[in-house]
Amino acid sequence: MDRSLYGHALLAVAAAGLALAAWKSPRDTTGSQAVIIGGDAERLSRVSWRDEGYQVSVARRGEAVEVTTQTLTKPATNETAPSTEPVALKPARVYPGTEEAKALFGKLMPLKAGRSLGVLPADKLAGLGLTEPKLTLTLQLGDTAQVIKLGETVFGTGDFYVQSGDGEVFLLPADRVAALRHGGGTLVDRNLTGVAEAKLRSFRVQGAFGTRSVQQQPAPGGGMATYVDAEAPDIKLETTREFLARLLRLRVVEQVEAVAAGEPLLSLELLGEEGGALGSFKVYPHTEKLALVVTPRFALPVTVSKSEADLLVREAGTLAKEGK
Questions:
Q1: Residue 192 falls inside a structural domain
Q2: In the listed set 153, 187, 221, which residue is the last one of a domain according to the structure?
Q3: Residue 33: how many CA atoms within 13 Å on its side-chain side?
Q4: Same structural domain, 162 and 263
Q5: Residue ending a domain, choose from 187, 205, 229
Q6: pTM above 0.70, yes or no
Q7: Is 124 in contact with 130 (CB distance < 8 Å)?
């Protein structure tokens, strides 16, 4: 038998043995040996996940959290002349974080394992995928970055074999890091406005159809609010609720490095208590399927569905003329 194949076979058998033992053994989440990293969740300021194809980080920003995503650009391959260019990260995209992103800090600290496997020899580490791990989890605690290596998963549970900075190997429950895998999609808030109708008090809409300022009239007893013309409070605007519902549920497709050209199709300003700004948005043409939106909620211009944007523009035009 080829020596390399023989070596791989031994590693596979060793890994299978450890996996079977881990699968059959009950999880121990009570002992101190099952704590990978101890400490208070309040000290955790950033969580970073690195995979072969992307990396995602979640950082505290006061009461809110910010999620940064980056995907990897792999150079084109050629069988006769393989590329020597290194794998590079595409430019970062920064998004507001969801409630799940906020909860992540408490979920990861203290970082507890299902059980500890102790410090293992090098040949066992190779069999568990920990010699050259493809995944890493980094927890920023004050000035200290704690790096956890993630290897293969356990058959039957999906839990990860992980190795801490001091060399000890643990079984990490898969649900602890599920939100960070596959790009962290559930951590990214793609809502265009990030505004709840309950926080809204007035808004201003402008376009080729004209301009209108709208005020909210709270209903007595906490019922459904109505909307009126700011300059003529006796004019109730019946089309406003449908327009607002469409605006508040509009989702971002992606952030793009594009320059808005020409006059916006639609300009919006949302205001809260005492006229405080909740958000501003300018909608521009972009492609056949996407419209471009410039808003301070995102670092770069964002794209939204063109069909949804077109409906919003038409409804804004109806709203701007209603009662006049």
A1: no
A2: 187
A3: 11
A4: no
A5: 187
A6: yes
A7: no
